[in-house]
Design brief:
Elements lengths: L4 E6 L4 E6 L40 E4 L4 E4 L2 E2 H7 L2 H10 L5 H12 L7 H7 L7 H15 L9 H27 L12 H10 L9 H14 L6 H10 L5 H13 L6 H12 L5 H9 L18 H17 L4 H14 L1 H5 L7 H11 L6 H22 L28
Antiparallel strand pairs: 1-2, 3-4, 4-5
Helix pairs in contact: 1-8, 2-17, 3-6, 5-6, 5-10, 6-7, 6-17, 8-13, 8-17, 9-10, 9-17, 10-17, 11-16, 13-16
This protein binds acetyl coenzyme *A.
Length: 428
């Protein structure tokens, strides 16, 4: 008998089966042959939230959650955060290799010269109320981009896919900055192609009267944060991009689904939720009572815990370092003290130790964004800017994978068997 196989005995029938094991997985479809009789549909797995199901093969990002390892295309996140630019990382994720000088220059130039958006998009933005959540605006406007670029439907053409990726990389920062200005009632600041990717974005958000004094330390800190967020294998938003993209819709629509998933407080919205939580705690003396509430199940310690990391999130470690560089420039965020104390107490508490709950990427990022001058409801937008290259790389990998089919999970039906319609007069 081959070693790379799994023997199964179905105790209902006494029959035995041998299933192949490849890459540490069995094919769920191989279970279908296990039936009680010809009428039986066949065995399925039940795995809500895909907790133990690989839904695709991917060569992009590697995570070892127990050892706190994160690599993009084999390169450790620590080295990329230290040495690479965000656009270099975006190229790496999408192409698979670090660019040489000429390749990087072309990639940067292509992205730089697509930063403008059609002015009709501004009318679209103006339709949002003054207090519209920036993520609600972003997901709506990015979805609307699909109507501006109907050519994006040609997803099987590699040159066309490249163009749409460039458009998303370049126009989403412009739209994100417009959302920021909209919330403040400020006039939109148009892109400046003489600035770097990060410099241009910062200028579009903070420039007043055409003036903004760039701060190189803060811009590099923002760049590192974007690098740390650039991809994270099959998380909720990336799975959404893949699932929606598997219907062969254009990438603007698929990415807009990713933005919607990221908006949620259990995913990208957690950085905003952390700040709300720190405000609620208000003072270090209130931390023990807050922790007790969490342990009783009355709320969660936001920015803690992760589906994959069961040790310290390597991104959180790097972000903590960045925080100190930023606070040197901006002055200490007073909430940092509460966050540090919260972390210290939680990491010594049996409840968190037993469940392997450590700070995740969102625990400190919000404090940095706030110190930079971004409002709480804007934090997840910054996450979305960072995650864009990952969504695009995963979208294309999904399209090119010969195993890809339209995403369509099965269900265990728990409802009524057939029953006859009851006329209104006879209903209780
Ligand atoms: N605070 C308190 N308890 C927690 C927390 C937390 N942050 N996270 C998990 N737990 C507890 C759960 O109550 C559960 O306890 P139980 O076994 O007694 O029922 C146990 O730990 C396991 O939790 P699950 O919810 O099953 O873990 P799951 O993998 O489904 O959830 C998640 C992961 C959603 C990230 C969760 O840890 C959480 O809600 N964290 C807070 C929100 C957050 O920070 N999200 C950002 C994630 S990172 C990102 O998206 C970029």
């Amino acid at each position: 008998m081959s070693k790379d196989s799994l023997s199964i005995i179905d105790n209902r029938t006494g029959k035995s089966y041998e299933l192949a094991i490849n890459d540490g997985t069995i094919k769920a479809l191989d279970l279908r042959q296990i039936r009680t009789d010809d009428e039986d549909f066949g065995l399925m797995t039940y795995d809500p939230a895909f907790v133990n199901t690989a839904a695709c093969k991917s060569a992009i990002t590697y995570i070892d959650g127990d050892r706190g390892i994160l690599r993009y295309r084999g390169y450790p996140i620590e080295q990329l955060a230290d040495k690479a630019s965000f656009l270099e990382v975006a190229y790496l994720l999408n192409v698979g290799e670090l660019p040489n000088r000429a390749q990087l220059d072309k990639w940067v130039s292509d992205i730089t010269y697509h930063t403008y958006v059609h002015t009709n998009l501004i009318k679209f933005l103006e339709g949002f109320r003054y207090d519209a959540h920036p993520m609600g605006m972003l997901l709506g406007v990015v979805g609307a981009l699909s109507t501006f670029y109907p050519d994006a439907k040609d997803i099987h053409n590699p040159a066309n896919r490249y163009l749409q990726k460039v458009r998303l990389m370049s126009k989403v920062p412009t739209i994100a900055a417009f959302c920021f200005r909209h919330s403040r009632g400020l006039p939109y600041e148009f892109p400046r192609n003489d600035l770097s990717y990060i410099g241009n974005f910062v200028n579009m958000t903070f420039s007043i009267g055409g003036r903004h004094e760039p701060n190189a330390v803060l811009q590099r800190a923002l760049e590192i944060l974007l690098i740390l967020h650039a991809d994270h294998e099959q998380n909720c938003s990336t799975s959404s991009v893949r699932a929606v993209g598997s219907s062969h819709v254009d990438p603007f629509s698929a990415v807009s689904a990713g933005i919607a998933a990221l908006y949620g407080p259990l995913h990208g919205g957690a950085n905003e939720a952390v700040l709300v939580m720190l405000d609620e705690i208000g003072d270090k003396k209130n931390i023990p009572a807050f922790i007790e509430k969490v342990k009783k199940g009355e709320g969660r310690l936001m920015g803690f815990g992760h589906r994959v990391y069961k040790s310290y999130d390597p991104r959180a470690k790097l972000i903590k370092q960045v925080a100190y560089d930023v606070f040197e420039q901006t002055g200490l965020n007073p909430k940092l003290e509460i966050a540090l104390e919260l972390e210290r107490i939680a990491l010594e508490d049996e409840y968190f130790i037993k469940r392997k709950l450590y700070p995740n990427v969102d625990f400190y990022s919000g404090l940095i964004y706030q110190a930079m001058g971004y409002p709480t409801d804007y934090f997840t937008i910054l996450f979305a800017l960072g995650r864009m290259p990952g969504w695009l790389a995963q979208w294309e990998e999904m399209l090119l994978d010969p195993d890809t089919k339209i995403a369509r999970p099965r269900q265990v039906f728990t409802g009524y068997d057939q029953r006859d319609f009851v006329p209104m007069a006879m209903r209780g």
